Amino acid sequence: MPRPESSPLCIAPHDVDIESQIERMGELVRRMLTSVRMPHDSSLTTSQLAVLCYLEKRAVRVGTLATAVGAAQNTTSEVVARLERVGLVRKEKDPEDQRAVLVSATERGLQALRERRAALRSVHRMILQALCVEDRKRFIDASEQLVELTEKARKAMAGTSILPRNGA
Length: 168
Known about the structure:
Layout: H1 18-35, H2 46-55, H3 62-69, H4 73-85, E1 89-94, E2 97-105, H5 107-129, H6 133-157
Antiparallel strand pairs: 1-2
Helix pairs in contact: 3-4
């Protein structure tokens, strides 16, 4: 059966509790992320994974990292300290400003991230294989659209009081 074109007018607010659905989906994604554990990273939290993901491509100061992951600077400092203790990140003096410190992922941290992603890909394949080809395509299309809309909404709300600050 052909699917109607998506538009904001297709769903009346009283037809579906969109907020509850999105919250539920977010909770399911969080549960999926925390349930896929590798033997060596069983103690990694979602915050620690977010920090490692951000540090994958660049070394940054803690303040920049805190803003990027949406957490308070002191919280991010604690996360970095835990990751440093287990050898997944390192701190070095900023060559441009010797008073500042840069945080970067170690090779061990990058390897943990690669292994985690491989495990998640396996879970994703299992999920998608349970769907017929048509449903799989719809699921992927809807997921891409949801990510795009979420990014647009986040950008639109940036700098307003609508968005919670510092991971609150």
